[in-house]
Amino acid sequence: xxxxxxxxxxxxxxxxxxxxxxxxxxxxxxxxxxxxxxxxxxxxxxxxxxxxxxxxxxxxxxxxxxxxxxxxxxxxxxxxxxxxxxxxxxxxxxxxxxxxxxxxxxxxxxxxxxxxxxxxxxxxxxxxxxxxxxxxxxxxxxxxxxxxxxxxxxxxxxxxxxxxxxxxxxxxxxxxxxxxxxxxxxxxxxxxxxxxxxxxxxxxxxxxxxxxxxxxxxxxxxxxxxxxxxxxxxxxxxxxxxxxxxxxxxxxxxxxxxxxxxxxxxxxxxxxxxxxxxxxxxxxxxxxxxxxxxxxxxxxxxxxxxxxxxxxxxxxxxxxxxxxxxxxxxxxxxxxxxxxxxxxxxxxxxxxxxxxxxxxxxxxxxxxxxxxxxxxxxxxxxxxxxxxxxxxxxxxxxxxxxxxxxxxxxxxxxxxxxxxxxxxxxxxxxxxxxxxxxxxxxxxxxxxxxxxxxxxxxxxxxxxxxxxxxx
Length: 471
Prior knowledge:
CATH architecture of the largest domain: Orthogonal Bundle
């Protein structure tokens, strides 16, 4: 696979192909760290709040902070464009969930490995589960053309597997949809990519591992290579040792593991059968509160499965499961009226967000407000204090998430101002809402972006971000 890419690039050079703009120069000359990536859930994307997000995005932003420079992300059309662009000096490094392989000629090299992934075969659970590659003989196995997965089926023992190579840049979701539709018999991809999308495809699951685990690494250009590598090694050593890397992995992958196949299947069914009658109320609540209706709908499903008459043994009632005191505070006259409950729930979430310190940026601000919606502001503050006691930043949701279960620990909660709380339920509450919202977002995306999209360049688009100031 790597050899084929290299041959294509060399042929392009020989024929005089356009390799794009001139090299960007050193970081000091460019005035910024230029990073090449691709759009996707594991790399760089615009989240539901309209903010740049992604595992690679967060990791590179932290690295730029260490360097003390601004970072500009350049989005390639697909992974196949990355190696030629890096070799041509269009970026200082590429961070795109790239599988570490042999260094390419021409001065490019790989940075330290920071993430391990395993390739898996994905199948339809309604059909027999295959146990080995031998059972794939004669079957249509889908891969995205530029992915490393392609080469795994070429290794011994070579089998009669009709590989369906989807065009470069094909979203992983499109590959899985073709499997669901029966256009493919199986799909081959990294397990982490499937983990991020499984909630959207509950009729699919992993069958078995293929090949050995692979390492992800940044591909570093010859421009400022020594400076980047010299800073990257201690950077990755530090974030690994102090737990930052683990928390980043948990931030982007942890919540998706909490939703079961049954939960996802039921939710998808009720999006079709129950949500249409309530959607107008959620949209009205968005207009009144400024909170995205998809988030409000996710809260409503988590609270009551969209049942306006829901009642808990403790007297919490309605679609948004408001207590009597909260309902009176929010001027909700009838908790069992779907419209009133939804509008009241939206106002309550805004109230929680207003109580979260203003300095906390999104999306952490929303996640902390959701936790307060469930457990109360007092217990949330206790959790933030626990995070601080552990030497963690209490303004980051992932750090608070890490300590929430301790609110129920008899050795710890007596030391807290507000005492015992079922923090483990709050953890599930926020994780589930994030999953439900992701599913709604995929089925009902916004018509217009929340933030202006970056200008489109040929053949890439770019967006700039300043490295956060040191605390």
